[in-house]
Amino acid sequence: MFSIYLMLIFFLLTPLVSPLFKFFKEKANWVLAVFPALFFISMMMMIPTIQYGPKIISLQWVPSIGVNLDFVFDGLSILFALLVSGIGILIFIYAGSYLKNHPLISRFYVFLFIFMASMLGLVLSDNIILLFIFWEATSISSYLLIGFDHENPEARKAALKALLITGLGGLSLMAGLILLGSITGSYTISGMNPVTANSPLYGLTLFLILLGAFTKSAQFPFHFWLPGAMKAPTPVSAYLHSATMVKAGVFLLMRLNPILGGTADWHLWVTLAGTTTMLTGSVLTLGQKDMKGLLASTTIIALGILVTLIGLSTSLAAKAALVFLLVHSLYKGSLFLVVGIIDHETGTRDITKLHSLTWVLPFSAFSAVLAAFSMSGFPPLLGFISKELLYEAKIQAPSAGEIILITGFLANAVNVTVAALIAIKPFLGRKKKISHHIHEVPFSLWLAPFLMAVAGLLFGFFSDSLGRLIISPALAVIHAEPTVVKLKMWHGVNEVFLLSVITVLTGIIFYFLYPQFIRMAGKLSRLRRFSISTIYERFLTGFQKFSYRVTVFLQNGRLRYYLMSVLIAMILLVLLFIFPFSEIEWKLEITDIYFFDLALVVLILIAAALVLFTSSRLTAIVALGIIGYGVALIYALYGAPDLAITQLLIETLIVILFALVIFRLPNFRSFSGKLTRWRDAFIALASGAVVTILTLKAGSLQFHPNISGYFLEKSYREAYGKNVVNVILVDFRALDTLGEITVLTVAAIGVFALLKLKRKQK
Amino acid sequence: MYPLIFRITSRYLLPIFLLFSLIVLYQGHNAPGGGFIGGLLAATAFIMSALAYGGKTARKKLKFNPATLVMLGLLTAVFSGILSLLKGDPFLTGLWIHIHLPLIGELHLGTPLLFDLGIFLTVIGITLWISFGLLEENE
Amino acid sequence: METILSLLIGGLFAAGIYSILRRSIVKLVIGLIMLSQSVNLLILTAAGLTRGNPPLLPKEGFVTGQGYADPLPQALVLTAIVISFGVISFTLVLLYRAHQKLGTDDLDKMGESDQ
User: Which of A484, A497, A653, B25 fits a disulfide with B38 by CB distance 3.0 to 4.6 angstroms?
Assistant: First the structure.
């Protein structure tokens, strides 16, 4: 319970970030890191309880539509919450130094706070609507963080790209979740029964939800937003775009696996997306020179691996996915932060230009090497276990195992290459060559990557308890069946181990061939015009041009053309939908017609015609008055005395006001030609006819005849009033009336302001 | 400018109209009438005298600034709704007291009547605010 | 009578629209007035008409089967009438002011003035 409040309080704390910076100045990052630390501790304390099954906490929010603050604490949510808050602590500390003296640093922390709270909410949600809200909040905070350097047009463009892609997926996800809710009849994940493939809407629901998950987790063909997201400050890339947010799609797939998973469709599409993404990521990686770019495309590979594993749906694959997820967050976060340090100190991220940095950045070098070992899967790090599991899961894959295995092999080899590139290339070299401007960074900068890398090592040593305490309960959630997870360092020399060895060797060969790759990439750069990113940009430009033209066409600044398009659309749509006119009763019996009423109607129509065609302003006012009083009489005849009186009084007032103003305006003039007038007359008559038909149609329909009956019945008994109209106004629907008099007040203020404006100018 | 007979009639009609508007307001719960109609009637009376004497004189006769009346009216309406909040009912729930009077019979007094009074004041204020503004513009 | 009133509603609506489609600002306000009359009548008619018999209860309170006129649309229309007063007076003053400032009563020329 405490942790939920803590998470919700994070949102409320955001306004305090700026004052905190004013108060603590350069130490503010340490103070701010206390909040994720508190959350981290509260999650740690929950670990023992989740061994006995999930714990659900529910706070009422909008119970009438099934939207409540339902949170679930189980292995999966705790694992993610620990990752988010744990890495959050380190990122909070790191970013303070990284962005030191940046004028907008407090804004950065506000965005980071919002992101962290939404991400925690996302992983802890049990309610799918709540999950969706947090999901969107992470997309928005990611947008704000990518575009943090808002004066750089590239950053803005990349931010928009990420927002559009993940936002598109978000919409699709919302539709999918609502479908899921209506199929299963529950909006809480814990209350859902599995949806079988026979359900008629299964295919559509699966498609929509997968689209949401794939866009968020940068699966092919939506992978292209992720490299762009590297425009964000490096701590953001480490935190959002490799360790946590991009894993939200993976998280969603894991969370919904017991409900939607296990079908042939699920296997096919999820595995296909994952494998294609792995392959795309591998191709994108080779030949890059930018270290951040290298890490971004290996993140795409990692996400592909994770999604493939979920698609395999075996217990072993799920286990491999969980361990790999943890490992990847640690080593990738660490490497990103090391790259951030290098960039911060040397001003470049070009892998071909960097060397000899070990002499000035020993801690970074150590962290990088350790993380790189984990990334390449060397014992005794956790990365080794994860890679062994990956291969094991892929060998045991139920179908298409060879393709997955080969792609996975390539992906892992590329990972080894990148690990070697980042851990060896910038750090190797003689001391003399190093520039004197580069210095060792402060403790707060090297601490975060160092701790993350060490964590990878420690988890390797304590893999047994890690498996028992966290991975095993999380696995139970994914596969909905309890499994004992044993994480072992040494499996003996088997085919998996041999595969690992070959992978590392291939990776090393790639490393030495890397200058060739760079040259090749330079030659192939023309192919970029066929990339999905380019297609996206073309589409976006085209769409903007199209909307510009539509806007210029529709928003031409002439009121009557707006009106005409609205009216013509209304006429056509109404006619289209009630075309046969069969249900309309044309009551025209003589007995039904009263002579007096008929005469009144004719009189009003004559007055209306007079208003239109007179050139005298006085005649127009008088005729308007006749219309108003005529309508008042109709009210009086048809049982509405209140209306009749009100109408009489209002009409009098309007005529007076009109008379006051109209003589200060010029005489009626005709601005338009004959043809225009005929056109307008035609449109006017057509819309009048449609309104007549609609009125008749409405008369033949009866919805809920009980409402008025209810008012009539309760009016005296409960509201002590015999004039039911008045009782409705001041009692039953008093809130509406309050709104109305407020609107009137606003109109009066408007009139007053307009009149006052002139007087002042005089 | 302002015809004499109009001025004299409006002088005597004004109090009669105001009294009448109050009656209409009070009986509105049981017969045609109520805050809107009463308010419009009262406003019409003032506008009549404004037409007879001019906007400035009529404004003086009103003694209130129309804007103050609007504010007062809105506050009365909101206050009548808040009363039920204090009791723990939703906003604007009607609360009633019933009094037995020896001659008149049973008298029901409730927050909806207070709400109607709020409408009455607001409508007078708004109508006069707009009309006086336009009248003064004309002078 | 519904048919005849529907024709009246259509007629007022058409007159209002025609008036609004003119370029003169005065005609715009006149059109707005007629349009709101038409819509108010529409609400009342669409809910079903009852000649006479206003929804005023007898002394004893509610008696069933009396065939009262429907009170709900009346309440809606009453609100609408008063609101239309606010809207019309605001439009009137706005256009009046616009005419004074821009020196034209042609809507098309007003549109060009801010470019």
Answer: B25
